[in-house]
Amino acid sequence: xxxxxxxxxxxxxxxxxxxxxxxxxxxxxxxxxxxxxxxxxxxxxxxxxxxxxxxxxxxxxxxxxxxxxxxxxxxxxxxxxxxxxxxxxxxxxxxxxxxxxxxxxxxxxxxxxxxxxxxxxxxxxxxxxxxxxxxxxxxxxxxxxxxxxxxxxxxxxxxxxxxxxxxxxxxxxxxxxxxxxxxxxxxxxxxxxxxxxxxxxxxxxxxxxxxxxxxxxxxxxxxxxxxxxxxxxxxxxxxxxxxxxxxxxxxxxxxxxxxxxxxxxxxxxxxxxxxxxxxxxxxxxxxxxxxxxxxxxxxxxxxxxxxxxxxxxxxxxxxxxxxxxxxxxxxxxxxxxxxxxxxxxxxxxxxxxxxxxxxxxxxxxxxxxxxxxxxxxxxxxxxxxxxxxxxxxxxxxxxxxxxxxxxxxxxxxxxxxxxxxxxxxxxxxxxxxxxxxxxxxxxxxxxxxxxxxxxxxxxxxxxxxxxxxxxxxxxxxxxxxxxxxxxxxxxxxxxxxxxxxxxxxxxxxxxxxxxxxxxxxxxxxxxxxxxxxxxxxxxxxxxxxxxxxxxxxxxxxxxxxxxxxxxxxxxxxxxxxxxxxxxxxxxxxxxxxxxxxxxxxxxxxxxxxxxxxxxxxxxxxxxxxxxxxxxxxxxxxxxxxxxxxxxxxxxxxxxxxxxxxxxxxxxxxxxxxxxxxxxxxxxxxxxxxxxxxxxxxxxxxxxxxxxxxxxxxxxxxxxxxxxxxxxxxxxxxxxxxxxxxxxxxxxxxxxxxxxxxxxxxxxxxxxxxxxxxxxxxxxxxxxxxxxxxxxxxxxxxxxx
Length: 800
Prior knowledge:
The protein has 800 residues and is of the alpha+beta class. The chain is built from 17 helices and 38 strands.
């Protein structure tokens, strides 16, 4: 007999059990969790169990805080111990860059009201008198974090789920899945189960489970050591020590009862197991691997040097188990791309992330929205470049860099360049210093050939290069390579009808016109932002950020109704785009085309199909830097010819190459919003985009929810009163020392000579008296009503 359930959860580790409990707390109690062995028997049981508050981002801090709050609450509710040791911790800095990172972490604590202090070596020595502090420059001391028992907390959550009516079936392996109507038919060892929704929380098995649903899940099982020493006599009769974290040995040291525990992430090697296509053996249970002292020897010796009382003791236990990691280090929580299949996996810090991940997933599934921005954990963030080789090699890179200092501008280097188009070699030969964007290479700035970018929180050497590029563009013209761009053609008799019912703004009503449109979720939050060019009544062209290429295409396509005449063509892989902007851009382009480029014939916010140097081009008169300019879209195999033609004609008009740093600074001068302002936890009315919402007399996805919700936030455009450092995003916004919001993005305005940024603040926050906390300093800001450069927006419309 086939059973039915609303949600089937595959996997009985902390991620699956936490997700089931959170679903039950949101009213979805008709769920079955399937575990092939015992709960926690995959990776959860052997975790060291740390939960830290000294982390690098608000999202990570919120996840960890939410997890711990859940665990403590469930312990009180069930009376079942979770094995929580609230001992606090120190995150150590021994270099100047690490000190800056510690200062930035203090902002996360301020935003989330997490008690922490920036301290010196004396305070570290007081907190842990056994730790060598001779080269400690600073540390973040936390007071409410510690470590938890993995099995105890998982069992407590399971008990709470069962008490709410959810079902857990141990020793019942799911063996396959297929689509049956609008349901998923799961094959299990104890019979068939029809499920409306499926959650893949299968840890190291997520890859092979995902294949049943047509998914490639970018998760790799990496081997991590921790070691437990013999009893430490000095621990007898004293309070438990705080958890110590130090990049010097790539891991952590803490007390485990009366022994020492040392965890190490090797910085030079990343052993992996169970990679596809074989995957993890189904019979594996409570699996551990033999220690590799050769790989961790140097790190272990450094750890002993840091805490000498452990050096002469024996090692009584070594735990080397498989822990899942992803290519960018973030977990996979949310919709998978397959209908009603959700992920809660790819977690390298399962105990710290499990409870928060469960809340995000349950809110998303039940309510269609979450209270925090989900972009960094959305499984759909990966594009077509995620081959099997990429998944493994980039994940190894992530593992080995896990304890690097995350300075602004830091990038992965493995497999670079991963995707290079026809301009790559030419631009590098001209001194382009590249950054990776969704697998593609894009110039950040232009310097000396072979130059390596300096990174850090303050202005770096490349700042002068970006200033030169911005000035040359404002004075003459600049071209930026934006070949990594999401480009779709949507055609058919019902194409306009489809786009109009998805867009908060009206789509263009006349052929040739362009509009900026926001596609919203049913809850009235941002799904994406696209530009729409109406080529003809039944033919449209859209553009958006390359990172959104797959999600945007799928989102639009999924809303085509049965019987509608709509076809979609994805040009993102085989087309490119060059954006030329500046007062001389019309002079340059007019030498290469017979098209009339005047305002009368080719007005601002319009597009035409024209020939440029004999190359068929989609030319759109828009500019993200606030100048007269055109986006020139063409097949990738013609982009090099187009680029050469532009520079041949533009040489006498001061045409320059433009990188993304200068581009961003010019964007900030114009007060243009970007993806960091249009996050999944807010909608257009929260960020001052009211003029792009046209609700009168029309219906669109998310309309009622948008209009019925009172905005809780507002977005301020501000000037930072420090010209030597910039807003990066995620820093606290303060009023009289108290947090009232956070920054979203920023950059230096090279034409205005000002550091600028966007501030998300609570609705009703006064404009005066605000400051931004950067590197633990409160830097005052001035809020401006209008863009500081060309506030009347005259330059893009000029007719000279």
